[in-house]
Design brief:
heterodimer, A: 111 residues, mainly beta, 11 strands, 0% helix, 53% strand, globular, B: 113 residues, 7-stranded mixed sheet, 50% strand
């Protein structure tokens, strides 16, 4: 089983739609969680960190469910420019400090 | 702040040659990570370094690959005797600490011919 798993999609949604992605992780000791966005053939960019209390940044809401070991990303009022691959990342917070990435979920927003 | 600087952006090597990829972290960041991404695949961790120390190299192939982050200068990922299977995008990232998100460089796309 992969340490971090995402539904690869693709998710094809019309403009204005609400779309949600889930990401599950296997290591219950994981401490830090993130969502990144990667456009085709470009570097990933940090979208937001995910906190236990949940957090919101404009149209984007991230939530963490430690009991079920998953994080989610909700995008409201989708824009064409939201089309990208969304990667979740999990950091165990040990002295290794590295993040393990999911393989990504591809979103295409259509007019 | 120039962000994470990687060079070269594109690198073509013949089989058997050496490839050297460079990464300068964001100013003030002391944690450097290298990831590899094959076409249509996810990011795979290779190595995590701090100045003059390799903290975790569990994702790095045991042979032909090495990494360093010297006291002065950029981090270097070195691939000796490249093979076609080494063709990939290599991303470097830096962070302010082990609990923080990463800032990625624009990557080096290595093509082995």
């Amino acid at each position: 089983r992969k340490e971090v798993e995402q539904d690869p999609g693709p998710f094809n949604v019309p403009e204005g739609a609400t779309v949600a992605f889930n990401c599950t992780y296997s290591n219950s000791a994981s401490q830090s969680f993130f969502w990144y966005r990667q456009d085709c053939r470009k570097e990933p960019k940090l979208l937001m960190s995910v906190y236990s209390s949940g957090n919101e940044d404009g149209r984007f809401t991230a939530q963490l469910n430690r009991a079920s070991q998953y994080i989610s990303l909700l995008i409201r009022d989708s824009k064409l420019s939201d089309s990208a691959t969304y990667l979740c990342a999990v950091n165990r917070g040990t002295n290794a400090g590295k993040s393990t990435f999911g393989d990504g979920t591809t979103l295409t927003v259509k007019p | 702040n120039a962000g994470v600087m990687q060079n070269p952006r594109h690198l073509v090597r013949r089989r058997g040659q050496e490839a050297r990829l460079r990464c300068s972290p964001m100013k003030g960041h002391s944690h450097v990570y290298w990831y590899r991404q094959l076409p249509e695949e996810g990011l795979k961790f290779m190595v995590y370094l701090q100045k003059e120390n390799i903290i975790d190299e569990s994702g790095m192939p045991k042979e032909r690959f090495s990494a360093e982050f010297p006291k002065e200068g950029p981090s270097i990922l070195r691939i000796q005797q490249v093979v076609r299977g080494d063709s990939a995008a290599y991303f470097c990232a830096s962070s302010d600490g082990q609990f923080y998100g990463y800032t990625f460089g624009s990557g080096t796309r290595l093509t082995v011919v």
